[in-house]
Specification:
The complex is a heterodimer.
Chain A: E1 9-13, E2 15-16, E3 19-20, H1 22-37, E4 42-48, H2 52-60, E5 65-70, H3 79-93, E6 97-101, H4 104-116, E7 121-125, E8 127-130, E9 137-143, E10 148-153, E11 160-164, E12 181-184, E13 196-203, E14 217-221, H5 231-241, E15 244-247, H6 249-253, E16 274-278, H7 284-290, E17 295-300, E18 313-316, H8 319-335
Parallel strand pairs in A: 1-4, 1-6, 4-5, 5-12, 6-11, 7-11, 14-15, 14-16, 16-17, 17-18
Antiparallel strand pairs in A: 2-3, 8-9, 9-10
Chain B: E1 2-6, E2 9-11, E3 17-18, E4 25-26, E5 32-34, H1 36-52, E6 55-61, H2 67-75, E7 80-84, H3 94-108, E8 113-117, H4 128-136, E9 139-150, E10 153-160, E11 163-170, E12 173-177, H5 189-197, E13 201-203, E14 224-229, E15 238-240, H6 245-258
Parallel strand pairs in B: 1-6, 1-8, 6-7, 7-13, 8-12, 9-12
Antiparallel strand pairs in B: 2-5, 3-4, 9-10, 10-11
The chains are: A alpha/beta, B alpha/beta.
Pfam families (chain B): ETF
GO molecular function, one term (chain B): electron transfer activity
Domain Electron transfer flavoprotein alpha/beta-subunit N-terminal (chain B): 22-212
């Protein structure tokens, strides 16, 4: 393998019901930095069904080219179909770098593709740079529950692949007057080669979408809530802020709220603009999942709670006194 | 059904502290534990065995001390434990590790199901499970919250933003599980004593004659760690502690408005 044969930065665009998920747009912005550093093109890879709108979106968010692969078998994400497409595309076009959002689907696809291509994959990155001497990507990621950062290189094999944490990079302002070459590739995967079949979907009881990975504001509750009914005040604060409800492991383990809400190593890794932790002490596993949030607000009675170590605003006080006042005041401000 | 579970011995990351002077990890005295998500995988395997019969084999790659982790697995329901250990395996990244594990699994026999935790709490990559599936040439099901098996068919619930996808596949498959799948059981004194006496089989590189030595260890690993560092410590934020909760809340709101974080439409 000669690294020189491999060029351009690809971003795998994850879609849900035909809509582009945020993380792909975030990665287009950072992918642009990597592509420019090596004088290469930024190319969006979109797989699914009926992708015209998705192709327009990724063009507006900065892709130089869009490779589109459509097929009935790609309507929903599935490991075998999507891996087949990605591997066939890589073999044909030889990209140097592939960025994939570190969602559940991205973390399912990344290892399967990199293993089939016998190349390196760096998981859940929070930093991406180009090493000036070699032109390789320097992938930086947290390990040991966020206690240690590691910078990883994949110098001798191509493509260099990484999954990248959601919310770490910001998407750019879209420009819908931009144009990009749309390349349609006909790659089909026979149904017998797709070995997993989605046969149903169970909506969590009483839940609306818990899209923590894409949330701009998250209000999370922890052990300090004391009992399940008290989640009502967290939900109310989330409602006035148009935020998503999160939870610590303690609250989930106690059965107060569904595991789909869990933030941290056991649950989801999040990077919202504002993260409000109510009654959460801040165990390292929780911090590992939310410390890349832009602004962290902590409300806790215990002034020594570790959560205050990462908080931009630390309110030492009883959440049952503080949160209702926040709800009332924010309502007033919003009503104005 | 015959089930194989992959486990990793990891440092208890909750016990890791940073030396405030040198700003490096203090590893001394940090206990080694079985990766928590792997315990969920083992519990899922033992429950399936209890329902359908068969066997549960546990494997781990690591140094000799990883036998302690394997003995713990024997004490909570595994029938057999095998350590995959050789100096030649040291320094392997996830691709090389999964290749070694898959080669060892093929040597150990045919399994209907391979179970792993969704990720290990030290590396947090979540890559080895899917990569084992690829090396074995079988399907993968990741982030699984429920498993049911009926004959050759496996039906799972896979974690999703809005709930759970229900997915069906034909065995054999590799499944990686999340914590909410079950509550792992505890060992009792009798099972602990029996596990302590158990002899753990060890597979070395020499026991895997078909293994390609260029694909293992540091040299066989496409990714290399260039440097590690402790994350820069965040500057301490603004503390708000007024006489009452109400006063604190009002003060916080005032600060948000000043910082232009809160205005109409937020």
């Amino acid at each position: 393998m000669d690294s020189k044969d491999y060029k351009n930065v690809w971003v795998f665009i994850e879609t849900a019901h035909g809509e582009v998920r945020n993380v792909g747009l975030e990665l287009l912005n950072q992918g642009r930095v990597l592509a420019d550093a090596n004088y290469e093109k930024l190319i969006a890879i979109v797989i699914g069904k009926q992708l015209d709108a998705a192709a327009k979106t990724v063009t507006a968010y900065g892709a130089d080219e869009v490779i589109v692969v459509e097929g009935e078998e790609y309507t929903d994400y599935n490991t075998d179909g999507y891996t087949n497409v990605m591997v066939r595309l890589v073999e044909k076009y030889k990209p140097s770098v592939i960025l994939i959002g570190a969602t559940n689907n991205g973390r399912d696809l990344g290892p399967r593709v990199s293993c089939r291509l016998a190349t390196g994959l760096t998981a859940d990155c929070t930093g991406l740079e180009i090493n000036e001497e070699t032109g390789d990507v320097a992938w930086t990621r947290p390990a040991f529950g966020g206690n240690l950062m590691a910078t990883i290189l994949c110098s001798a094999s191509r493509p260099q692949i990484g999954t990248v944490r959601t919310g770490v990079f910001k998407k750019t302002q879209p420009d819908f007057s931009r144009t990009a070459a749309i390349i349609r590739e006909e790659i089909r995967t026979p149904s017998e080669e797709i070995r997993t079949k989605i046969i149903g979907f169970i909506k969590a009881a009483g839940e609306t979408a818990v899209n923590l990975e894409e949330a701009e504001i998250i209000v999370s509750g922890g052990r300090g809530l004391g009992k399940p009914e008290n989640f009502a005040c967290i939900k109310e604060l989330a409602e006035v802020l148009e935020a998503t409800v999160g939870a610590s492991r303690a609250a989930v383990d106690a059965g107060w709220i569904s595991p789909l809400h869990q933030v941290g190593q056991t649950g989801k890794t999040v990077g919202p603009k504002i993260y409000i932790a109510c009654g959460i002490s801040g165990a390292i596993q929780h911090l590992a999942g939310m410390s890349s949030s832009d602004i962290i607000v902590a409300i806790n009675k215990d002034s020594d709670a570790p959560i205050f170590g990462v908080a931009d605003y630390g309110i030492v006080g009883d959440l049952f006194e503080v949160v209702p006042v926040l709800i009332e005041e924010i309502r007033k401000i919003k009503a104005n | 059904m015959d089930i194989l579970v992959c486990v990793k011995q990891v440092p208890d990351t909750a016990e890791i502290k940073i030396d405030p002077v040198t700003n490096t990890l203090i590893r001394a005295g940090v206990p080694s534990i079985v990766n928590p998500f792997d315990k969920n995988a083992l519990e899922a395997a033992v429950q399936l065995k209890e329902a359908h019969g068969g066997s549960v084999t546990v494997i781990s790659m690591g140094p000799d001390q990883a036998k302690a982790a394997l003995k713990e697995c024997l004490s909570v329901g595994a029938d057999k434990a095998v350590l995959i250990s050789d100096r030649l395996f040291g320094g392997s990244d996830t691709l090389a590790t999964s290749y070694i594990l898959a080669t060892a699994i093929k040597k150990l026999g045919k399994f209907d199901l391979v179970l792993c935790g969704k990720q290990a709490i030290d590396g947090d990559t979540g890559q080895v499970g899917p990569e084992i599936a690829e090396h074995l040439g079988i399907a993968q099901l990741t982030f699984i919250a429920k498993i049911e098996v009926s004959g050759e068919k496996i039906t799972v619930q896979r974690e999703h933003d809005e709930g759970y996808e229900v997915i069906e596949a034909k065995l054999p498959v590799v499944c990686t599980v999340i914590k909410s799948i079950n509550e792992p059981r505890y060992a009792n004194i009798k099972s602990k004593m029996a596990a302590n006496k158990a002899v753990i089989e060890v597979i070395t590189a020499a026991d895997l004659p078909e293994i390609d030595l260029t694909k293992i260890g540091l040299k066989g690993s496409p990714t290399k760690v260039k440097k590690t560092f402790t994350p820069p410590r965040k500057e301490s934020g603004i503390r708000i502690q007024e006489g009452t909760g109400r006063e604190s809340a009002l003060k916080f709101i005032e600060k948000l408005v000043v910082a232009k974080l809160l205005n109409r439409g937020c």
